[in-house]
Amino acid sequence: MVFTYNFLVSFFGFAMKNKNTSTVQIPQYIRSSVKALSFLSNKWATKLAMKLFITPFKFPLPKREIHMDTFSVKYPLELPKAKKDILVYENGNGTKKALLIHGWNGRGTQLFSIAKELTQSGYTVISFDAPGHGKASKNTSVMTEFMEAAFVLERKYDGFDIVIGHSLGGMTAINVLSRGFQARKAVIIGSGDIIQDIMDDFIKRIGLKPKIGIKLKELFEKTYNENIDNYTISNQIQKVKIPVLIIHDRNDLDVPYTAAEHIYSKAPNAELYLTEKLGHRKILGNGNVLQKIKEFIEKD
Fold it and tell me: What are the boundaries of the signal sequence (predicted)?
């Protein structure tokens, strides 16, 4: 049984690693193997799901991000609580400061188009490779570690004018803002909302029964001693009083745009901007989206 579990973890990781598409495409033979494991033991199937859920995969740096990677001032930084490292990227020398937070399987250079716009507008832009991502050491990762990274950088840079997050980075942005992170405005792009929904979707994609999603939540909360409901974005945004721009594409196959609508419905001070046919990642470099962000940031 242990051999089967370890084999599937490594083999499944390889399959995902070589399938860098707009959504996670799970090969049928992998789905069948995971499903077979669940017939043998729900416990082992849940542990496998947990391992896969918290293990990011590193993809080669795209050519479009090479410029930012090359010309950034880069330095490693340790997260004291997580005892893991991140790699920080610093761009520009403006008096205003912006923090960019990438999503799952992303990198500190993933929001390069936004970083370019901000530096041209007089910002110093800070981003980072979260634990297990980009050039940070290979490791598991969870959102609370993204959050710790944001708070460590907030203290180091004495607060930020703007915080912008994509996907899990957007979830991170709202969760730190609701817990005292200092910023003047925020932008979240393609953000998820309810973590249990994300877990359930993940379980469905790897071919396991819905009951494993419940067991995954239980195992996750037991392992990290955290109630995942405390990180629901539509709940946390109710505590965020600064202006928030919520951007999402109607054709996002990774995170449904209904998540953005639900978050917006609960936000005390937000604007919703929905796009078409940009998906989950192309949206980051779209000219109209960049212009919308610029107008939002500059608006009094």
Answer: none
pTM of the predicted model as reported, rounded to 2 decimal places: 0.92
pLDDT digits (tens, 9 = 90+) for 180-235: 999 999 999 999 999 999 999 999 988 899 999 999 999 999 999 999 999 999 99
Q: What are phi and psi of 251, to 5 degrees?
A: -105, 20
Residues 176 and 147 sit within 8 Å (Cβ to Cβ): yes
List strands edge to edge, sheet with 244-249: 73-79, 84-91, 123-129, 96-101, 162-166, 185-189, 244-249, 270-275
Q: Residue 139 in 3-state DSSP?
A: coil
Contacts of 133 (CB under 8 A, 6+ apart): 56, 58, 102, 105, 106, 107, 141
| Contact (CB, 8 A) for 280 and 252 | yes
Q: CATH homologous superfamily for 67-193+232-298?
A: Alpha/Beta hydrolase fold, catalytic domain (3.40.50.1820)
Token readout for 42 is 């729900």
In 3D space, the residue among 191, 233, 198, 193 whose CA is nearest the CA of residue 213 turns out to be 198
Distance of CA 217 to the CA centre of its chain: 18
Which of 147, 135, 77, 75 has the alpha carbon at shortest distance from 107? 135
